[in-house]
Amino acid sequence: MVDLKTQYETIKPEVDAAIQEVLNSTAYINGPQVRQFQASLESYLGVRHVIPCANGTDALQIALMALGLQPGDEVIVPAFTYVATAEVIALLQLRPVMVDVDPDTFNVTADLIEQAVTPRTKAVVPVNLFGQSCDMEPIMAVAEKYSLFVVEDNAQAIGASYTFADGTSVKAGAIGHIGCTSFYPSKNLGAYGDGGAIYTNDEALATACRSIANHGQASRRYYHDVIGCNSRLDSIQAAILNVKLARLDRFAAARQQAAAYYDRFFAGVPQLQVPARQANSTHVFHQYTLIVREGDRDRLQEFLKEKGIPSMIYYPVPLYNQEAYKSSAPYPDFSLPVTEYLCKTVISLPMHTELDDETLEYICQSVQSFFN
Ligand SMILES: *Cc1c(COP(=O)(O)O)cnc(C)c1O
Ligand 1 within 6 A of 155 CB? Predict the structure, then answer.
């Protein structure tokens, strides 16, 4: 699905030197590379505060902890997402309220969120799925109307841009009160291990997140004001991310080129629906995800496997049908039609920065031959 090896070869001298510098300095934790990465990411995203942390799941958890919610408070979350989004809500004894998504963009919408608001709703976690921002302007309007916090799960869309009606463009994830991202190796900005970040323009939320990520310590060392956790980005990962952040837009362009190739080819395959573009957002293609409109999606996957082509089903099971989250559903047999449909019909093809035309052609021809 991804080719991290070839990508590494293209940046090897810089990455190796950056890692060596950390080894020489022995500042493995909180070294200057972490501060440099924080500053570079703040400037790239155009946000006032970035708080690096250990992974994307921690980022979501710390963000939610910073909001001061009470057990039982409801947090709206799409049912068609990676489990981490709902997991942290449940872990904090908040109530995940699962909503459907748009059938074309796979993203949650302002209308779907508004329909799920109750007097107990305190926050919403829109997920910028597969590489494009949700339509955030109307989502922020709903949030304002009902006084909800918005925590964006931007693990899959770092580098995308969202344009408001007045023409201003903002990086995906930097629109809600807090944005969260992951530097898991296969993410668009991937480290060579785990990593994550929280970002916000709100000074108070930034201070709270920074403290929570550091055992609830505020300014004085060994004095702890709140119960926190331990979540750090280590210096080696920050050093690698510094090299890769400088190339993030070029990486996105390579993904967009591969997606355009897929799009052109699959436009001529009527059984498939190519990924729709979200109005007002660019798409950085964390995943290239097709809908198999006609034919057996699982047999297509088997067929591709026999041809040596990896593919993935993101996501095969609606959150409310996951064993661990059944009790979060409002009633037994709860089901959301679009989520159900997508779990049965989506398939993601190889998508990374090193796809050449020859490989793309082989993948496309193979997919087409399944339908002929
Ligand atoms: C990857 C991912 C996460 C979790 O990130 P980790 O770094 O693996 O903890 C959360 N949400 C979404 C949508 C993701 O894709």
Answer: yes
